[in-house]
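Data availability (excerpt). The following record was deposited with the supplementary files.
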Amino acid sequence: MEQWTDKVLGAVSTEKIKTICISDFVEKLEEEKIDGEEEEHTHSEEHEEGAFDEHIWTSPYNAIKMMEALEEAMKKIDSENSEKYKNNSQNYIAKIQEVDKQIQQIVDNRLRDRLVFADRMPMQYFIKYYGLKVSSAFSACSTDIEPSASTIAYLENKLKEESIPVILYIELNDGTVAKTISEGTKAEAMQIQTLHNISLNDFRNGETWVSLMTRNIDVLKKALL
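Predicted structure:
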């Protein structure tokens, strides 16, 4: 789905390189209009009919399918170590399942079912997987960073109408808009990890899907319980 990868592969010799398109192993969702999203972007190229949401990894189910696909690919490439790849895959899948179990418990006991983003919302697969609702200032692919006054007002009203205690912003965002909305609603501004980007410190610390998604457990407890 990332068109720039074709340019990269076209610039190198692939005779001895195995390429794997990981998105081939999961069911992809079309991009959808999100509640609260800036109206002027509704019919823009960002919502081109048939365009897929590329943030496939936010669903634990997809994360597991991706692990299984990589395991099979690596066993074919390096058959001598196939048992090692199998064990590593199974161990990590078990960790993904544990995070999924903890999040599912929160969802099962929820008092409310809507997450509100004062930001982009690259978690459609996550939202669909857990059967939640969502409101957001922008779509996942929007290049804008400042929502209009009417969008802010809409999100504020949504928080008040449904007594939602948390307004979310994503990683590598300073949360300015979320904090502004927080001041007008008393909802707490909290960062949620979408695993779309990673900070330099997290990169250096070797953070993973499991460690980053685990951070969301306390955020989701606050938002939904």
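Summary of structural features: The chain is about 45% helix and 10% strand.
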